[in-house]
Automatic annotation (TrEMBL):
<dbReference type="InterPro" id="IPR003737">
    <property type="entry name" value="GlcNAc_PI_deacetylase-related"/>
</dbReference>
<dbReference type="GO" id="GO:0016811">
    <property type="term" value="F:hydrolase activity, acting on carbon-nitrogen (but not peptide) bonds, in linear amides"/>
</dbReference>
<dbReference type="Pfam" id="PF02585">
    <property type="entry name" value="PIG-L"/>
</dbReference>
<protein>
    <recommendedName>
        <fullName>PIG-L family deacetylase</fullName>
    </recommendedName>
</protein>
<dbReference type="InterPro" id="IPR024078">
    <property type="entry name" value="LmbE-like_dom_sf"/>
</dbReference>
């Protein structure tokens, strides 16, 4: 059964304060860059929550330590935000360990969740863009869970739109939205594609041979970038 879907223009989004949750630096551009760039032109406010440190992408590199890679990825994230037109947006780097986020209820998870609860109180978002709850990457699922728990703890109920990065390539049947779970929302982001691609390219540690001494390293493929930087951007709007 085909899930329900809507096609919208970004101008139909009325939210004024938008929290963007990125499990890794680059997800904000690949997943949400079109909508961010479009709404930035309309003067909307943004805060970006980068959940993990992104430090696991090149574990075999001898020349790049984890701390150096973490710093590089934060520079790339800030560059990407500038290219999306939100250079002055607030940002929080939680720096949880990439591919090894703390389990729910652990001391580290409680501390991270408390920071998000405080952020929700300070920024008061009326829209949260976050990863699809069953996107097939552990950090994406754990980031959804962390933010979902923080929203519940704070008793805040902004609109949510969930974006999938890996679902189409790697998802199993059970990872996809179930009947009655969510409505697909497709935004026309043609006017923002150039900015979105430029922002994606700001993540040079993930898209180029900047770190060349790790043959096992992660690299975003051209086909993945092409798939995620087209004229429309897809989200899932959860049903109550
Ligand atoms: Zn990611």
């Amino acid at each position: 059964m085909t899930p329900p879907s809507l096609s919208l223009h970004p101008k139909s989004v009325t939210a004024e304060r938008i929290l963007v949750v990125a499990p890794h630096p680059d997800d904000e551009s690949l997943g949400c860059g079109g909508l961010v760039a479009s709404l930035a032109c309309l003067g909307r406010q943004f805060h970006f929550l980068f959940v993990t440190d992104g430090g696991a992408s090149h574990p075999g590199s001898a020349s790049w330590t984890r701390s150096a890679l973490r710093a590089q990825r934060e520079i790339e994230a800030s560059d990407a935000l500038s290219r999306l037109g939100v250079h002055d947006a607030g940002r929080t780097f939680l720096r949880l360990p990439d591919a090894a986020m703390p389990s729910s209820g652990s001391e580290a998870e409680v501390a991270a969740r408390t920071r998000i609860v405080d952020l929700l109180a300070d920024f008061d978002p009326d829209l949260v863009l976050l990863p699809w709850r069953r996107d097939p990457h552990c950090d994406h699922r754990d980031s959804w869970l962390l933010v979902d728990r923080a929203l519940r703890q704070a008793d805040r109920h902004p609109r949510r739109l969930e974006y999938a990065i890996w679902l189409d390539e790697l998802g199993a049947d059970g990872d996809h939205p179930r009947v009655g779970e969510a409505v697909q929302v497709s935004f026309d982001v043609r006017s923002a594609v150039v900015a979105k691609r430029a922002a994606t390219e700001a993540h040079i540690s993930q898209t180029t041979a900047l770190i060349a001494d790790d043959p096992t390293a992660f690299r975003l493929t051209t086909s993945t970038i092409e798939r995620l930087t087209g004229p429309s951007e897809i989200y899932w709007s959860p049903l109550p």
